Amino acid sequence: MTALQPARGTRDLIGEDFRRHHKVAETARRISALYGFEEWATPIFEDTRVFSRGLGDTSDVVSKEMYTFTDRGGESVTLRPEATAGLCRALVSNGLTQSNLPRKVFYTGPMFRYERPQKGRYRQFHQIDIEVMGAAEPLSDAEVIACGWHILQELGVAGATVLEINTLGDTPSRDAYRAALIAYFSAHRDALSHDSRVRLEKNPLRILDSKDETDRAIVAGAPTIAAHLTPEAAEFYASVRRHLDRFGVPFRENPRIVRGLDYYSHTAFEFVTDQLGAQGTVMGGGRYNGLVEEMGGPPTPCVGWAAGVERLAMLLPEAPSAPRPVAVIPVGDAAEAPALDLLQALRRAGVTAEIAYRGNLKRRMERANRIGARAAVIIGDEEIAAGVAQLRDLDAGTQEKVPLAEVPGRLA
Predict the structure, then answer these.
(1) pLDDT at 52
(2) Which parts of the sequence belong to the Aminoacyl-transfer RNA synthetases class-II family profile domain (predicted)?
(3) Between 267 and 56, where is the model more confident?
(4) Half-sphere exposure of residue 266, counting CA atoms within 13 Å on the CB side?
(5) Fewest CB within 10 A of the end CB: N or C in the chain?
(6) Where in the chain is the domain with CATH 3.40.50.800?
């Protein structure tokens, strides 16, 4: 019988892979807490409208990539392809839009998109995500970016990334820019890809995101938003840049970073790397001031970002080491009870400890070496009578007698 394998686009996280994944998530959890973010958890599947409203019916995610199905009750539900829409829905569903704003939220968990698996990108993947919901000030934009930069620094991957920022302006700025893009791309309509011709009618900003090589050559000559910014939008962007300087976050401006949906405004940013092939973004986000309203709530300014755990894990300079346990080794039937007492005493003292389930002294010592134990605690009849244990340092090869009560303290 053929052994079953993981579904296409998924993988098991075991050993080093899991330790890398865990380090990314735990580091993000720890650093975001320093910035005042509280962790939320939302369902893995939602009413499909959460994402069709949140991502736009014409987006590739909604039209091509979502895992959507009808449940037994006849409801259309979707495995979440990203976290932000669900978090905004949770803000509204739980009646949190009228008090204690802004809400600063951290999230981590699995997401699902049906797309071609490639390096660092899976159909079930994981993200870390932070959102500030209910703050309109440019300082909040800069702070979420600074938090992301801090996380990258703590992971030791900041040097492998570059922060690129842009502004999408306010509504008048975007309206003027959209008109300029329509005029420009209409002059090149016949050369555009089919997808970009469709976008020209519905959302011309999304042409700037095209991966088609012919489109990209045309995009290179497209106008930028800078000439279309209102004074207010220009000052907002300048303020974000000043705050980033104060936070000590280096950046470069990239006028081609855009977000296609109308409720995105002002700041857009990405941390990019050249170490993961063509898919170079490891963290990206921006300001979205209309998504909570799409979920049935009041107008609520928000800003945040998401980062791929798998992609960040690939950038880690080295995998975290597994904790090295202490092996407790009873010799003889009479030693088993005191060995188990010592085993639990070690664990309560915060020491990773293991005991082999069977075997003589030689076989148990062989297992201690296989699991990379740093020490072995040996208890036999003589040790029981004397109230001691033989403590063997498996790195130095030394051994000494230690009173049983003192063993946890020596190894903690």
Answers:
(1) 86
(2) 8-330
(3) 267
(4) 28
(5) N
(6) 326-411
Q: Two tokens at 15?
A: 């050993």
Mean pLDDT of the region 333-349: 95
Sheet strands side by side (includes 76-79): 45-47, 76-79, 67-70
Each as own residue / partner, the long-range contacts of residues 211-218 (CB below 8 Å, 24 or more positions apart, any chain) are: 218/185, 218/188, 218/191, 218/192
CA distance 113 to 80: 8
CATH 3.30.930.10 in the chain: give the residue spans. 16-170+230-315
By the 8 A CB rule, do 107 and 83 touch? yes
CATH of domain 326-411: 3.40.50.800
Averaged pLDDT for residues 200-217:
86
Q: Which fold would CATH assign to domain 16-170+230-315?
A: BirA Bifunctional Protein; domain 2 (3.30.930)
Confidence at 40, pLDDT banded by 50, 70, 90 = very high
- 58 pLDDT more than 60: no
Provide the 10 A C-beta neighbour count for residue 148: 30
